[in-house]
Amino acid sequence: MQSGYYSSAAGMVTQFNRLDTISNNLANVNTIGFKEQNLVVGDFLRLYKEARDELPNANHTKEAAQFLNRAMNKAPQIVDSYTDYSVGNMEKSDNPLDMALSKEGLFFLVKTPMGVRLTRDGSFTKDDQGKLVTKDGYEVLPSDYFSTNQSIMLNPEDNIVQVDKNGQIFTDVPNSAKFTTGSKIFIAQPDNIAMLKKEGNNLYRYDGVTEFESLEGSGAVRQGFIEKSNVNAVKMMTQMIETNRLVGMYQKAMDTQMNDMNRDAIEKIAKKS
Q1: Would you give the end-to-end CA distance of the chain in angstroms?
Q2: Which one, of 97, 92, 103, lies nearest residue 217 by Cα?
Q3: What three-state secondary structure class fits 209?
Q4: CA–CA gap between residue 135 and residue 32 (Å, rounded)
Q5: Alpha carbon of 54 to those of 43, 45, 71, 73, 79: distances in Å?
Q6: In 3D, which of 258, 260, 217, 206 has the Cα closest to residue 83?
Q7: Please, which residues have CB within 8 angstroms of residue 124's CB and are 6 or more apart in sequence?
Q8: What CA–CA distance (Å, rounded) separates 21 from 44?
Q9: Global confidence as pTM
């Protein structure tokens, strides 16, 4: 068995997966609120050591050997993935309906056809009915949504909308310099951010979302700003170049294993015969 060939093939597949992740990050470098995705590369032997105590057969037995391919011990594999939730740069937009969250681990809640979801994209707008919605038309939820099932409504005559750092909305009273208190934006903070699942369109799913309580004093809302993607384009381009080089190296190693070594072996056997 040419173990080097299989190890090289596994390494190439790993780099292809890594290349997909890097490409997705680069494609979203200008997506508002996007969070960088990363992969963790390990090897088969490490995975085996972590799980061998849970295997049904004792170690160092013929039965246990069926769970371990010694030829694949050092083959690199994707063992985990994670999202970098660090805060991206804040960009001033001067749009009063744009909101950004300046603290890590906080999210807006929006109502989608799939259910309530979380997002960091605060580029909001107002629909024809006066509801505060995202650019994709998802309804932005107020802090008391799970008890009242109400929406955040902005009347057509609300020419001036102010939002404080805790998400409380204030609108102007027509023909006066006074403001009236409106709804408060739901600011969610998941207990375990690792349980978030990306669903596309800058949305995250969280199984216990209906148990959330809005933060009363988050102090994180910045009106008139948008949070840019936290993807470092220079770093991603460097990783892409590195990944492409590794693919070429693995391909050359596979070619050496299958062609050069096999040819040498055939020639040596032919000479002996």
Answers
A1: 22
A2: 103
A3: helix
A4: 11
A5: 18, 15, 22, 19, 18
A6: 206
A7: 97, 98, 99, 132, 133, 134, 135, 140
A8: 21
A9: 0.77
Phi first, then psi, for residue 112 (nearest 5°) are -120, 170
| Residue 39 CB-density burial (10 A; 0-12 exposed, 13-18 middle, 19+ buried) | middle
Amino acid at site 39: L
Hunting for tokens 């199984």 — which residue is that?
Answer: 207
From first to last of its 273 residues, what are the pLDDT tens digits of the chain?
466 677 777 778 888 889 999 999 999 999 999 999 998 877 655 655 666 566 555 655 655 555 555 445 566 777 778 899 999 999 999 899 999 999 999 999 999 999 999 999 999 999 888 899 999 999 999 999 999 999 999 877 666 789 999 999 998 776 666 778 889 999 999 988 888 999 888 999 998 888 889 998 899 999 999 999 999 999 999 999 999 998 888 888 777 777 766 666 666 666 665
